[in-house]
């Protein structure tokens, strides 16, 4: 038997092994400093149009790195954010939970933000300082963003003598949760309740708002709530947000790689918060969040208050090429400028000619329709129910698209 195929396999193995070693060494050598410019992959980028009144900023306000229980350096988070087309990112480390404390001791809890900001220097990405207050109920987990100093949000006497994760966590939990909330607010932080349905706290997946949360909301110290985190969405959290006037927040809460958890190469994406901001600055984003001007983008669903969702839908969908081409049947094109594949149900006075009552307008694309208007008209208004856009749990949005007939 010829040895040529075997020798070829060995050679290819050596080439592939050399390549892997080169990539590994390169990644280690580039652990600090600026994030590299990501490869061009426009299909991966999360893109929604600006509304008539605001810029639409794509924000992931809850991620982790090796400075708490994540598994990548902050520089990787920046590279992922650039590839995903994010406008803003917060790397929010657990303050009390430090599982890598024996490997990466860092008495300055601002180190994660410093590394993230350094990696994003000269990049088109806003880096927001934040941290995660990590407690058991009744407080649960809360993110504080737009902070000045993470070190003031926890207190551990003799921290340097606590060398294990459990010892540090036990000591950190002695400081009252309320003190952490108040310390964050003293810095002007925006606080939101994380994964309120977490199975560790609520095994049935149904969150119950506690007196701790209610009191802090009433005092203006708790401002938002996650309704989408990772692969989970909670209608109950959505309703809590509406009942208590909290900002709607969507996050990745990523600990591993975005590519592993959300598979953007297969058309997936991280959950994000769409923030409707006066301009593209951290301060304007902060103002928008305190004004609750957000919509959550989770899988192929949009969730937001009608005040905020309606302008986004109007900026995303429009009618083009409206005219009678053959006879008295009107031809229209519905154009979609967003990342959502919009599922629409016709509620108009007119029936469609070649479609059933429901249609799909793919992301950044269009769908041609024939509309039976009966008599020829000079203008047309088509009303649709947007089946994958929600203004409240189980309550879908509606949109009317209008145009003059050519």
Give the distance, in angstroms, between the N- and C-terminal Cα atoms: 75 Å
CATH homologous superfamily identity of the largest domain: Metal-dependent hydrolases
Q: Please state the average pLDDT score.
A: 91
SS-derived structural category: alpha/beta
Total number of strands: 21
Largest sheet: 10 strands, mixed
Architecture per CATH nomenclature, i.e. the level-2 architecture of the largest domain: Alpha-Beta Barrel
Q: What is the CATH C level class of the largest domain, in words? A: Alpha Beta
Q: How many whole angstroms does the radius of gyration measure?
A: 25 Å
Overall helicity: 25-40%
Provide the number of structural domains. 2
Task: State which percent range the strand residues make up.
Answer: 25-35%
Instruction: Please mark out the parts with pLDDT under 50 across 5 or more consecutive residues, or reply none.
Output: 1-30
**Helix count?**
10
CATH fold field value of the largest domain: TIM Barrel
Shape: elongated
Question: What report would you give on this structure?
Answer:
Helix content is 26%, strand content 29%. The radius of gyration is 25 Å and the shape is elongated. The termini are far apart. Helix 2 crosses helix 3 (111-119). By secondary structure, it is α/β, with parallel strands linked by helices. The protein has ten helices and 21 strands.
